[in-house]
Amino acid sequence: MKQLSDHFYRKRSGTAWEKTGAQKALRLFHRASRDVPAYKHFLKQHGVDPLKIKTIEDFKNVPPIDKKTYLRAYSLKELVFPASQVALHTFSASSGSTGTPFLWPRGDTHENEGMFLHELIFNKFFGIKPTHSALGVVAFSMGTWIAGTYTLASMKAMSNKGYRLMTVTPGIDLETLLDVVKPLISNFKTVILAGYPPYIKDVLDYGREAGIRWHDVHMKLLLAGEAFSERFRDYLMRRSGIKDPFRDIISLYGTADAAILAHETPLSIYIRRKAADKKQLAQALFHDERLPSLFQYHPDLKFFEVQDDQLLFTAEAGIPLIRYRIGDRGGVIAFEEMAHHFANRSMFPVKQFLWKLPFVYLFGRSDLTASIYAVLVYPEHIKSALEQRIFSSYITGKFVMSTEHKRSYEQHLLVRVELKPHIRQTRSLEKLLVRSLLEMLNKHNIEYRKLYHSLGERVVPRIQLVTHGDPLYFRPGTKQRWVKKD
């Protein structure tokens, strides 16, 4: 895939991007309806005649697919194109956040797409040119999960293309990562840390304690797998020496199902930071007081729709996905619609990145919440409470929240918080955390605010401080789970 110029992204209209995406989605639908046995059967079961699906409006009436009713209902060979059409060579496992892990195949076509998107981010946003010496540190889980192996494949492809990019793959073993990065870092102009946001925070914190001088090189952060606040981005900037919040920390919207779905851009970050400061803007854009993740996407690679506040996408992944309901809540905003909210675009500090790609925003999985008296509590609110600077010396920022019940069957919200190494549990720290949590919930969650006004102390969250690396809740080497379900 050939890289496009900044000029092309700025000049091509949002409508043109979306028209191309719709055309490709329709072509994929017809190809899958003809050549993928499972999809052919699925459409027949639902009484859909593919020949009658001629326009994108027709396409919107095609029933969505999901993991339970489609992917797990057929065998792998029924779900993919014939081997004569698409060559597949690697499996990755989904995280299993909603059940048993699912295995997803991919091939060179899908990895070439990953290289295209990584090069776009590295070259255009991070400013890495083929002549620059750069070290890519893959701090995602390796093994069967997609993030680590896909990132490695993308970086290696960039090296093969001529970039002076070398890669090291310590994964999520913190001690190993620090041991390999410390002697390497001074040999490179730029260092890219790629990993889960909470883990990259640990890397920066403990690396500093180990004597790694992050500020001496040009640090870039490529993040995925978790949402984070703009306050958290600011923290990462302070720890890493990064000065540019719009170009040097980029988050991906990725999934094992279809790799990279969308990514942050300097423009999406600018808009999100404005929305974080102005509740009215956030409400106007996202129809919610909470601040979602905000990305731009390439409709010719992934075509997004929204149905009942659930994101659907169509993509030619290893398993072709047509109007696939992934389980994420969010929405889509056309570039022209977004532009109406920012009439004075001359104020943008990122003028060269006024790309007219559409936006997708993401609140997260609909099942990743705890509840108290039927009011949903979201991880974003807990993160905001724990990210206050006064707590940074005492806690890691990791937590597990759950809805617990007393013997009298009364509910309460319990938040288990991981202490930093060698920090002891104290009642005073617990009280400060409860106060911060209560303040954030009342500030950002309207339903909780009403509940607290009615029930008072009965719905105040409880904090349980847990020792660092606790094997039950914060086991090292595993992806953090923010919600504990019964």
Automatic annotation (TrEMBL):
Superkingdom field: Bacteria
PANTHER family named among the record's database cross-references: BLR5969 PROTEIN (PTHR43845)
Name of this chain's protein: Uncharacterized protein
